[in-house]
Amino acid sequence: TQPIWLITKQEQLSVEGNQLLSDRAILSLIPLEYPQSLWKIQPQVLAKNLESHGPIARAKISRQVFPLSLKIEITERRPVAITQLKSKVGAGNSQKMGWLDAEGNWIPLESFSALERTQSLPTLKVIGFTEQYRKYWHLLYQSLSRSPVKVFEINWQDPGNLILTTELGIVHL
Predict the structure, then answer these.
(1) How far apart are CA 150 and CA 55, in angstroms?
(2) Which residues of 101-113 are buried (b: 16+ CB within 10 A; e: fewer)?
(3) What is the mean pLDDT of the chain?
(4) In degrees to the nearest 10, what's the CA dihedral of 36, 4, 14, 43?
């Protein structure tokens, strides 16, 4: 209850491990009201909350006594492809632009504002990706990333005909 043990402002939170996400973007995802007792803050709950957001794969939050602060360590999901996620909503279909990581996790397009500045945009484009293909994505991406032939586009619109656009031409599987 003493003021010496209170987190009174966002500047007492430090973020480490982020390369694509800004500190401000990560801190905006942490639901803390100020002032807050350092001992009442539940680091595991805050970490789980951060991990529930698309761009963050893992989060670890620890209390620091000297200086009084919270240390936030994150591991970001690395986008490897751009896609439109098709989802069935009611009677119609909706499509949202976003990124896929190597594990098939979908990340909203606006999550990584720093990608354009660092020019590390993925060149792989996936068309027709749906949630049902997620379990196959890891194996497919792993195979394609080891291939000596560069793949530019994966067209998954027809489940009976996977189409790859490569540097050699179009390949139907």
Answers:
(1) 26
(2) beebbbbeeebbe
(3) 87
(4) -50
Cα–Cα distance, 107 to 34 (Å, whole number) = 30
Residue 73: pLDDT band (50, 70, 90) is very high
CB-based contact 154:126 (threshold 8 Å): yes
CA nearest to 113, candidates 101, 96, 102, 99: 99
pTM: 0.76
Question: Tokens in use for 132?
Answer: 């049902």
